[in-house]
Amino acid sequence: MSDEPESTSATRGPTPDTLLHTGGSDDPSAEDLVLASGRDLTPENLRWAERRLAEEGRSAIDKALP
Predict the structure, then answer these.
(1) Which run of H or of E encompasses 45?
(2) Contacts of 53 (CB under 8 A, 6+ apart)
(3) What is the pLDDT of residues 36-56, one digit of tens each?
(4) What letter would DSSP give residue 23?
(5) What dihedral do alpha carbons 36, 39, 40, 41 form, nearest 10°?
(6) CA–CA distance from 17 to each of 7, 11, 38, 47, 59 (Å)?
(7) CA-CA distance, 52 to 30, in Å (whole number)?
């Protein structure tokens, strides 16, 4: 068995949708949004994410993911 996570394995093909989507049962945090958008975890980016979540709610993170 490989130590490499399934989502990054080139030999297994594309990552299954069940691993890509965030699901609707949890509330994303500002940290979740920063990481989903590919930004570094800095105080400025966390403030940006908090504003986006306050304005757009859960859809803010859905827009950041494929």
Answers:
(1) helix 43-56
(2) 28, 30, 33, 60, 61
(3) 899 999 999 999 999 999 999
(4) -
(5) -50
(6) 10, 17, 19, 30, 18
(7) 9
Residue positions counted in the chain: 66
Residue 5 tokens read as 């996570």
Amino acid at 15: T
60, exposed or middle or buried, with CB in 10 Å at 0-12, 13-18, 19+? buried
> What pLDDT is recorded for position 16?
74
Q: In terms of Cα–Cα distance, which of 37, 43, 40, 39 is closest to 56?
A: 37
pLDDT of residue 4: 47
Report field, pTM of the whole predicted structure over 0.85: no
